[in-house]
Amino acid sequence: MFSVDDAGDENPEDAQDEAVLVRFIRHVMDNKVVQLDELGGEFSLRVHEIIARVGALESMGYLSGVTDDRGKFIYVSKDELQAVAKFIGRKGRVRIAALAQESNKLIDLQPRQVAVVDDDEGGEGEGGEAPVGS
Questions:
Q1: Residues 6+ apart with CB under 8 A from 58
Q2: 83: how many CB neighbours lie within 10 A of its CB?
Q3: Chain centroid, CA 28 distance in Å
Q4: Can you tell me the distance from the alpha carbon of 37 to that of 45, in angstroms, rounded to the nearest whole number?
Q5: What is the distance between the alpha carbons of residues 47 and 65, in angstroms, rounded to a whole number?
Q6: What is the tally of helices (H) and strands (E) in the chain?
Q7: What are the domain boundaries of the chain?
Q8: Cβ atoms of residues 102 and 87 within 8 Å
Q9: Distance separating alpha carbons of residues 106 and 91, to the nearest angstrom
Q10: Residue 80 and residue 86: Cα distance in Å, rounded?
Q11: Which of 45, 57, 80, 102 could form an SS bridge with 63, CB 3.0 to 4.6 Å?
Q12: Which residues of the chain fall short of a pLDDT of 50?
C-alpha cells in the first residue's frame, strides 16, 4: 500500500535554479562586458562551466555576444546586432575598419546604471527604482 501525503508539480530546487539562472543572465546583460573567471567566482562555477553556460544561453537565444581571447564575454543586445546588420545592408560592401568604427558607435559597452537602495536612509537610490534580482 502506498499513501501520498503531499503532492506538487514544482520542485523547490528547480525554482531556486531558475532564480540563479535569471540572476546570471541579468548580471551579464547589466554589466555588458564580464570577465569569465570573475563571473565564475560570482556564481560559484568553474570557468569551463561558465563558458558552457554562456554558450547554452546563446544557443537558446537568452544571450548574444562574443567571447574574446582574453576571457571576456561581451554582451550585445538583439537591437545592437540589428543596428549593425542594418548598417551593413545599407552600405553593402564594408571594410573591417569601417565596420569596427560603426560598431563602436552602435554597440554600447557601458554597464547599465542600476539604482542602489541606500541602507542608511531606507530610501531608494537616485534612479527611483531598486535593483532587479537583489
A1: 64, 65
A2: 16
A3: 3
A4: 9
A5: 17
A6: 5, 3
A7: 22-75, 78-110
A8: yes
A9: 15
A10: 10
A11: 57
A12: 115-134
pLDDT tens, 36-68?
999 999 999 999 999 999 999 999 999 999 998
The residues facing 35 across adjacent strands are: 72
Please state, in angstroms and rounded to a whole number, the distance separating the CA atoms of residues 84 and 101: 11
CATH number of 22-75: 1.10.10.10
C-alpha 132/C-alpha 27 separation (Å) is 10
- In terms of Cα–Cα distance, which of 79, 80, 103 is closest to 91? 103
Q: Fill in the amino acid letter for 128.
A: G
User: Which amino acid is it at 27?
Assistant: H
Within 8 A by CB and 6+ apart from 34, the residues are 27, 28, 72, 73, 75
Cα 118 to its chain centre, rounded Å, is 25
